[in-house]
Amino acid sequence: MVGLVFDSLHTPGTPVATGRRSPAAAATAPGPAAGPAAAPGRRPGTVRFEAVSKTYPSAAGPVRALDSVDLAIPAGAIFGIIGRSGAGKSSLLRMVNRLEAPTSGRVLVDGAPVDALDTDGLVALRRRVGMIFQHFNLLAAKTVRQNVALPLTVAGVPRSAIGPRVAEALRLVGLEDKADTYPSRLSGGQKQRVGIARALVSDPEILLCDEATSALDPETTLAILDLLRDINRRLGITIILITHEMHVIREICSDVVVLERGRVVETGPVWRVFGAPEHPTTQALLEPLTRGLPPDLADRLQPLPTPGGSAILRITWAGQGTPDLSGLAVAAGTPVRLLQAGIERIQGHAVGRMLVAVPGADPDVEARLRALGGAVERLGYVAPEAEAG
Amino acid sequence: MTPQMIDRLWQAFLDTGLMVGVSAGIAVLAGLPLALFLVISGPGGIVPAPAANRVVGAVVNGFRAVPFIVLLVALIPFTRLVAGTTIGVWAAIVPLAVSATPFFARIAEVSLREVDAGLIEAAQSIGCRRRHILAHVLLPEALPGIVAGFTITVVSMIGASAMAGAVGAGGLGDVAIRYGYQRFDTTVMMVVIAILIALVCVVQFAGDTAVRRLRAR
């Protein structure tokens, strides 16, 4: 929750180069022809879901896990799929490398349907699509080096070529010194790094992350997300991740799709979905990241103005501009007190909320504040002694 | 005890070792593929074959249901076919192996089934074919459990081999019955019991050590 006002001159809607990946690169990446992130000789790594449905039989009758999902994931994106448990996100992800098959509809990787593949084709596809898991799924009977080498070993890569590639993959994840250790001796974060190295050693164009940070502590989660972002930027690999944690999406994703009971309920660039969540599910998932009204203020909030009191306004930014603090006072025509604020920059867009107290009961103040770019909502009034909140 | 008796005990010890050793080897060679088949062809396995799975499962259960002493007699025609004789150590090895194979297969099956489905999925995701999954995931990951199960199999076979005297195969159990029970020679029986206890302890210790080594990584 930093970056209150970095550049008040920044024009609304224009992505600004920040530490984060530019959303424009992902959003405008073309189809299978040539992604901007694609290195020569590398296929771009696009994924399309076309009317994908999945029905499971169960004791209580058929369960519809996915319901005609249409989705296009551009090459080089970090694409997030979020939803509650049982929303169908895991099924959707596992259809990309066909660990699961759809009941109807098609899944296309780089324009080729994966449903039509025979065993050889499927094995070839899986070598182009890496995957990491919530519980890491490392082989306990093999050393780190043997785990990372396995995709190459089973692909029949000559032993002399395996060594350097394994070493390179381990260097990429920062675990060169653990090559001869068994996974049981590693921490959760290190295990996931081994998982990442194993997924990357065959030089895939797509990396699937199945709740890859859900079993890790917050600090390790951030380190793993940093690594994934770095891999995306340096290698141009399309990353598709599923999670139930919104902060993971905020941290690294360029685009997000929200699933609820097997249906896509919201999709778009992360800054827009975070700034102006439309569906109740999205709003509920964002709840932990959103500050509500402080309880002491909520207790004193009254529907009608008090003499000498203030109006309490909530200003919401959803990427339409950046808060101009002096402009706020000018527009209000009176000094404005800042009660609470949480503004973040997501992909160069200011997203968040401010809670301000404006003395008096001027009914036109919302309209004037709205001109600054945010959405303004009058929550109520407080008596003078309470406004400092 | 006379030197002849010591000789006799030594010979019996070797006979028991030979019977148990050879049939344990056969039990592993036949039981492990059987266990693998039961696991991979079962529900949720990597090569589902429900009908064949049920048939093999029923056959395994059938052999497990027959007491060894009954099997020993019932298998006599088969033993003659395989070993060319119905008496002696080799005649005992056939029913011992036939009895130990389904026993070991079921124990190994449990260990194989305990291999996390996530590991198989991870192997599939990196482009492993079925044979790779067997060689790199199922067998190595289940190995500690399989070794522990093999130890149990060998110990129970040492017990079963005592009945091999019924087909004149000798062995420690046979000596104990003939001298201890039929001739009231309590000393011989006590010595045999001591040898059997020591043998089982050694086998169990070796098995436990192997399992601990495998799990320590």
Automatic annotation (TrEMBL), chain B:
<protein>
    <submittedName>
        <fullName>Binding-protein-dependent transport systems inner membrane component</fullName>
    </submittedName>
</protein>
<feature type="transmembrane region" description="Helical">
    <location>
        <begin position="87"/>
        <end position="105"/>
    </location>
</feature>
<keyword id="KW-0812">Transmembrane</keyword>
<keyword id="KW-0472">Membrane</keyword>
<feature type="transmembrane region" description="Helical">
    <location>
        <begin position="184"/>
        <end position="207"/>
    </location>
</feature>
<keyword id="KW-1133">Transmembrane helix</keyword>
<comment type="similarity">
    <text>Belongs to the binding-protein-dependent transport system permease family. CysTW subfamily.</text>
</comment>
<dbReference type="InterPro" id="IPR051322">
    <property type="entry name" value="AA_ABC_Transporter_Permease"/>
</dbReference>
<keyword id="KW-0813">Transport</keyword>
<dbReference type="GO" id="GO:0005886">
    <property type="term" value="C:plasma membrane"/>
</dbReference>
<dbReference type="Pfam" id="PF00528">
    <property type="entry name" value="BPD_transp_1"/>
</dbReference>
<keyword id="KW-1003">Cell membrane</keyword>
<dbReference type="InterPro" id="IPR000515">
    <property type="entry name" value="MetI-like"/>
</dbReference>
<feature type="transmembrane region" description="Helical">
    <location>
        <begin position="55"/>
        <end position="75"/>
    </location>
</feature>
<dbReference type="GO" id="GO:0048473">
    <property type="term" value="P:D-methionine transmembrane transport"/>
</dbReference>
<dbReference type="InterPro" id="IPR035906">
    <property type="entry name" value="MetI-like_sf"/>
</dbReference>
<feature type="domain" description="ABC transmembrane type-1">
    <location>
        <begin position="13"/>
        <end position="205"/>
    </location>
</feature>
<feature type="transmembrane region" description="Helical">
    <location>
        <begin position="12"/>
        <end position="40"/>
    </location>
</feature>
